[in-house]
Amino acid sequence: MDLINVLLVDDHQVVRQGLRDFLELQDDIDVVGEAGSGEEGVQLARELLPDVVLMDLVMPGIDGVEATRQVKEASPSTRVIVLTSFADDNKVFPAIKAGAISYLLKDVSPEDLAHAIRAAQRNEAVLHPEVATRLMQEFSAPRPSETQIDQLTEREMDVLRLIARGKSNREIADKLVISEKTVKTHVSNILSKLHLADRTQAAIYALRQRLVPIDLDEG
Questions:
Q1: Which ranges constitute the DSSP H helices of 52-179?
Q2: What is the mean pLDDT of residues 97-106?
């Protein structure tokens, strides 16, 4: 089994220790390093090339948004998961634009955090429900340039809604009773038809178009 190498970036040592204690119990996750600042996080990411970085946002020196941007520039294959106490619009949107694949709040359950790490390794996004709600509120008004949604089939719409709920390809396949390979084909078609780069953008698009209810935890 291939281990998912994770780097922890948070200026609170107690938080890092708590994360390490839990993640080291997971058979498929290995904590390869810790950083107490954005600068140190970027430097370690360059040296270690981790699969996933858990990134706090509010830290001394460069903040998590800038650190995320620099990590993605140094190691494009590294997936950055924001793990913060803040769901403010002025933090959510810059972090996603900087390249974060997922955005979680620190009240996330340990099991959901492990799920998000595994999802990130598969290049799949997970958004905290509160963050997803804020994104929907921000992008609620339909925009003329987004009429491409009419090109999606009914099944592709189903897949898009489940992407917005943070579901993995396997979970979508189980929910829709189709193969995981078919799900991957649908995801590829969705990104192509909507001119989107990745699943995170697809999730934001679905929220903007009000394709999912506010309570994303349901189901």
A1: 64-74, 89-98, 110-121, 129-138, 154-164, 169-176
A2: 91
Q: Tokens 């598969």 appear where?
A: 122
Give the integer Cα–Cα distance in Å for 219 and 216.
8
Contact 64, 95 (CB under 8 A): yes
3-state secondary structure of 102: strand
- 103-113 pLDDT per residue, tens: 999 988 999 99
Give helix 64-74 / helix 38-48 axis angle, nearest 10°. 20
Q: Where are the domains of the chain?
A: 4-126, 142-208
Residue with tokens 């002025």: 90
**C-alpha torsion angle, residues 8, 49, 135, 155 (rounded to 10):** -120
Cα dist. 185→7, 141, 173, 207 in Å?
A: 31, 29, 11, 21
Topology of domain 4-126 in CATH is Rossmann fold (3.40.50)
Which CATH architecture best describes the domain 142-208? Orthogonal Bundle (1.10)
Identity of the residue numbered 85:
S
